[in-house]
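# step 3/5: fold
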Amino acid sequence: MEWLNRRRLPFIAAMLLGAICLTLYVWHLQREWGPILRSQSLLAPRVAPPIAQDFALHWTGSFLALAGRPASVYDYSRFGTVEQELTGIGPHPWPYPPTGLLIDAPLALLPYFVSLAVWLTLTMGLYLLVLYRIAPHPLTIFWALAFFGTFENFFFGQNGFLSAALLGGGLLLVNGFPLAGGMLLGLVSYKPHLAALIPLALLAGRRWRALGGAVVSGAILALASAAFFGWDIWWIFLRNISGTLNNLYTRAGWFYKMPSVFAAARLAGFDVPAAWIFHGAAMAAAAALVVWIWSRPASTAIRSSALATAILLFSPHIWYYDLTLLALALAWLWREGYTKGWLPGEQIFLLLSWLMPLVSFCLAVGMKWSPGPLYLALPMSMVVRRYFWEKSRAGEMRAVALADNLSMANPR
């Protein structure tokens, strides 16, 4: 038992915890996908029992778009009726702009189950590839799959994998290939609440070519959606924004599934104006963090993890599947520690940050109480701590270089 020392014990415990989290996939595949695979054709137009409930939203939107009725997605009663007829799931309100509908448009070209399998394979593959590029280590895929945000996205068939792949891929390219990186970042605008801080970061960091690429790709995506669906669809979307916000205000059943400051305040009993006051403070703090980090000579990992974390704090309409963005931040922070050296307690903080979304979800579901975005406190503190550590190291290196120059200029 000499090999089980104090140094190895935390790692072994973490690996066991990750393996337990991975059993969620086995349970889901056996319980949800197994009966379908055993009892019916994968080409069946309607899957029974229905799986990946959120994917039904995207597949139905695609069906209406391909049927020449794209504006119907913003008619709640009509959309809900079609969704239930096609998939047996719903009704859901369509919350996305026409750019989101354009990205979803090809989904209904395939039967529901096949489309879901292709969608998850492609988007999850891109997501895992980006994470591996951020943190190239044999265990990266293991930790990514065991992360609760990854499982939530897989369970519901949502678009969190795509959002994380676009954001992470863009940030990986923004230094060496700023125009291409900016264009990937601009595509995040298909979910505007996730893209709001991206231009602010690029402005603060004076990344003009990347900012230009983001503006161009975002504009192309918007114009393409208007060309495919007609210009009127944008006016219909704008008229329905108030209805989308009303769903955010009033659907109490959603709050425990949304790890945002707004949802936490509503679950705590605050009314809508008070919840917005709390969330407005969080938005201001997130924007200030992004401007502060990006306007300083911080490393790419520090800047990127700060932006990914701040996006989650900024948006009031965040779901657990959106925490794939947190996986990006944790991967960059791990890479910093692995390549530059760990700060005291940093590995434990990183593990706790990885675990917090699952803990938060269990508290919300089991106790109808949400700790809200407290899961962001640790990674944010790690970002700030790393920044000051890098700054002090840079100061030490400059002091050493200055001392060397003085000794060479004044030899004894």
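# step 4/5: annotate
Residues 122-158+188-205+247-395 form one domain.
# step 5/5: archive (pending)
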